[in-house]
Amino acid sequence: MKQRIERRLFFEFTSHTVVFAAVFAAVAVAFSQLVPREGAAKQTAAGEVLTRIVIDPGHGGEDGGAVAPDGTAEKDINLSVAKSTCALLTALGCDCVMTRDDDVMLSGDGAGSKKLRDLQSRVAFTDGGGCVFVSIHQNKFPQNSCAGTQVYYSKNDARSEKLASLIRKNVQGYLQKNNTRQIKRAGSEIYVLDRCTVPAVLVECGFLSNPAELELLKTEEYQKKLGCVIALSVADYLYDDAAGRD
Ligand SMILES: [Zn+2]
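The joint structure predicted for all components is written out below.
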């Protein structure tokens, strides 16, 4: 119970604070019990050590992703949420990298379509293993009544499902108490989850096609709250893993 209350305080504090690493660092010290043990490293049964977190803001550059009726592009919200997530995880002592930290496509040069090369570049961040992959996106649907965060997980590593469950639980607990969306196992339609062989999830934060949710998603405060929930979930995941709880 103690840990639960402290996490709530942590969420309330960070989600209302301007994102500065120094502020997060101070908060992290104050709430140091949240820092995953052994510097976020986990020796798994298979001998693998999870030491890095890859945060992947979907789309970028000429690929805007889903576009809201008012012209808001998914890529910009994805990047903002990802930056908050990564800043908080870094402050918590985790080794966190982003696949992009600017408005760019990761297509580079080479054969195949630009989009495919972009997706391959994102997956390449997990080369060598020993990391967790979290892709951040926004949803869109023809019916504008659809709302709420939806989390997908990769079939390639059994631990992906647990990470997805933690994100879903924390989204419901901290942000969307009426969210009844269950986590979903991704098939080949989600390239990055199909190709990642490390624990991997994709978070569709909300629906750009829902007018009320779009207004929320456009605010810096809500973007930070989403980043905070995702970061806390990843920290929970590493902490539980380090403590040997499955
Ligand atoms: Zn997307």
